[in-house]
Amino acid sequence: MSRIVSISPPGGGASPTFEQPYEMLAACHERVQRMLALLGRLRDHLRRHGADDQARGAARDVMRYFDQAAPQHHLDEELHVFPRLDGTGDAALAAVVRRLRDDHLRMESAWAAARSVLAPLAAGERDAIDPEQDRALDDFAGLYDEHIRAEEELVYPAASAGMDEADTRAMGQEMMRRRGVR
């Protein structure tokens, strides 16, 4: 029997800490991509095997990540990244930041629809998904590629430029406080 719930990162290197907030944000993007890959494997598994124990566990894993970690990540960006770029006078950068903020709202809405598909699977109340439910999962997953690319290639470098050690430390400490990390 194949196992579809393995989500451990390749390589096993040390994870960034709150002392490296932009590296943590990028690492979160890697976790988002792993969770979206898990969602894809879950959908394939459902077509072949139905909502067995492995499928239910995978659905729970995806829900846990997008219920808990993803909203914190978006809040990190809304509080610490995007405001650093407001008022820079760079119209193109401002347009990208506006789009990313709008993306967060679309992601929240699309997650609600995707979650409504996954929750009954996780609870053993649904054995398969229909084409409309499959589209809801596609719509959700499809929001991330360009969003992540814009953040990592343009927004994170622009926002972190000129940050001194005190700015970086304050950002990391606030992220820790909000998560209840000591």
Task: Describe the structure in your own words.
With 182 residues, this protein is an all-alpha fold. The protein has one domain (21-179): nmb1532 protein domain like (Four Helix Bundle (Hemerythrin (Met), subunit A), Up-down Bundle), CATH 1.20.120. It is built from six helices and no strands. The protein has helices spanning 21-49, 53-85, 91-122, 131-141, 144-160, 165-179. Helix 3 packs antiparallel against helix 4 (131-141) and helix 3 crosses helix 5 (144-160). The radius of gyration is 18 Å and the shape is elongated. The N and C termini lie far apart (41 Å). Mean pLDDT is 92; it is low at 1-11.
**Strand tally:** 0
Total separate domains: 1
CATH architecture: Up-down Bundle
Task: Tell me, rounded to a whole number, the average pLDDT.
Answer: 92
The oligomerization state is single chain
Q: Give the biggest beta sheet.
A: none
Given the structure, what is the number of helices? 6
User: What is the H/E order?
Assistant: HHHHHH
Q: Give helix % range.
A: over 70%
- The structure class reads mainly alpha
- Our Rg estimate from Cα atoms comes to 18 Å
Name the shape in a single word. elongated
Kindly identify the CATH topology: Four Helix Bundle (Hemerythrin (Met), subunit A)
Low-confidence stretches: 1-11
Tell me the strand percentage band.
under 5%
CATH class: Mainly Alpha
Q: Termini separation (Å)?
A: 41 Å
For CATH, the homologous superfamily is named as: nmb1532 protein domain like
